[in-house]
Amino acid sequence: MYHYAWTRPEFAAKIDSRRLITGRLTDLLREAGAIAAVIRENLSAVAATATEAHELDIATGSPLLRLEERRYDAEEYLFTLARFLIVPSFLQLEFEHTPGPADGG
Predict the structure, then answer these.
(1) H or E segment at 36?
(2) pLDDT at 1 over 90
(3) Residue 71 lies in a domain
(4) Domain that holds residue 22
(5) Is 105 helix (H, G, I), strand (E, B) or coil?
(6) Which CATH number do you get for residue 70?
(7) What 3-state class would DSSP assign to 25?
(8) Is residue 102 part of a domain?
(9) What is the mean pLDDT of residues 56-60?
(10) Which of 64, 75, 87, 90 has the highest Cβ tally under 10 A?
(11) Would you state the pLDDT for residue 102?
């Protein structure tokens, strides 16, 4: 997997990078004052660029799945972007959903 992440500098400066190993990014961002009002996720098929292919040890143009997550504050200002490129043959998806009132939970 190839991973890229960006966080607005004023929040990134408040996050102790050592805590990223054991902490959840959502919790660390919240502690830094970045609270997501909207999270948009997109899953798409893409072709590996030369750089991505080199990092993943695959051929340029090989198929990849790209999962991209963008988090926005209440004013819909982007404050973090995470992009994951996944070689499809190594993919396993797992979803967890906490039922709310709309789900009868």
Answers:
(1) none
(2) no
(3) yes
(4) 2-90
(5) coil
(6) 3.40.1410.10
(7) helix
(8) no
(9) 95
(10) 64
(11) 63
